[in-house]
Amino acid sequence: MLREHMPELMPAYDRVVELAGGGDLAARMLSLYRPPPYLAACSQGVWTREEGPALVRNYDYSPSRLEGIAWHTRLLGGMRVIGMSDCLWGLLDGMNDAGLAVSLTFGGRRVLGDGFGIPIVVRYLLETCATVGEARVTLARLPFSLSHNLTLVDRSGEVLTAYLSPDREPIFRPFPVATNHQGIVEWPEQAKATKTVEREHLIVGLLDDPGTTPTSFVDAFLRDPLFSTAYESGFGTLYTAEYRPVVGAIAYRWPAFEWRLGFDAFIEDLHTEVLAEGSVA
Any bridge partners for residue 260, and if so which? Predict the structure, then answer.
């Protein structure tokens, strides 16, 4: 399935399988085809006014399941990619040096299907697409294992949110916000627990408010209700990411710490963040 749908990744896939010791188990896991289901929360929005564009997102999940590795890679020998690792070589969010930025949220639907886990999809887009238009064409042909929302922006400022599901065609909207539903709420219990509608309305309000600045927009992601402390429930905010495609700059943020990276200024380092009592990332 990987060879059929993402053939460009095969040389890198063969290498990571080799590094994992080879064998059927490693090959199946690293393909990310039909992975176990996983649920998260997450909020994301695209700022397109002064100093933009910028993709800002909160990743909300269980601290124990965060790999916590920001990769700077050139897996296919072409575009450079910086992003947050998941499933060893997939990505939760990231940006390439062509100026395409992508991040994911859970889509708020329980349906499962035969397709790929979303981290390898994010990796594939950033390895092979330079623009939102190219990414849209790619997403229209891929199969997905679970419902997820992707928000994308490129250097030109074009914005797209893609509602992806195993059981229906992708829905594409030029909408700069995504939380954990796909236009309408289809899982009310999950929506209530994560406040997906309230978070979406808040981000839309920030983007519509003429008084919002680039700094205040990012800062809002570091405060309640966008910043979640529900770590014991498995959807506390583990980091805030800010991707700026025009200048190739990335910042990973917490309420009291900021880590800036870039394609020409990527310095390896380690940061330990105490999220809450007993929760460390």
Answer: 251
> 81 - beta bridge partners?
73, 96
Contact 102, 150 (CB under 8 A): yes
State which amino acid sits at residue 204: V
Q: What is the pLDDT of residues 59-113, one digit of tens each?
A: 999 999 999 999 999 999 999 999 999 999 999 999 999 999 999 999 999 999 9
C-alpha 167/C-alpha 182 separation (Å) is: 13
> Could you identify the residue written with the tokens 């059981």?
167
- Per-residue pLDDT of 225-270, as tens digits, reads 999 999 988 899 999 999 999 999 999 999 999 999 999 999 999 9
Q: Write the DSSP string, 166-232.
A: SSS--EEE--SEE-SSBSB-S-HHHHHHHTHHHHHHHHHHHHH-TT--HHHHHHHTTSTTTS---TT
Q: How far apart are CA 117 and CA 35, in angstroms?
A: 6
Counted residue by residue, the chain has a size of 281
Which structure tokens are listed for 58?
Answer: 């909160």
Give the Cα separation of 33 and 54 in Å (integer).
31
Secondary structure of 26-75 as H, E, C letters: HHHHHHCECCCCCCCCCEEEEECCCCCCEEEEEEEECHHHCCCCEEEECC
Is residue 208 within 8 Å of 198, Cβ to Cβ? no
Residues ≥6 apart with Cβ < 8 Å to 277: none
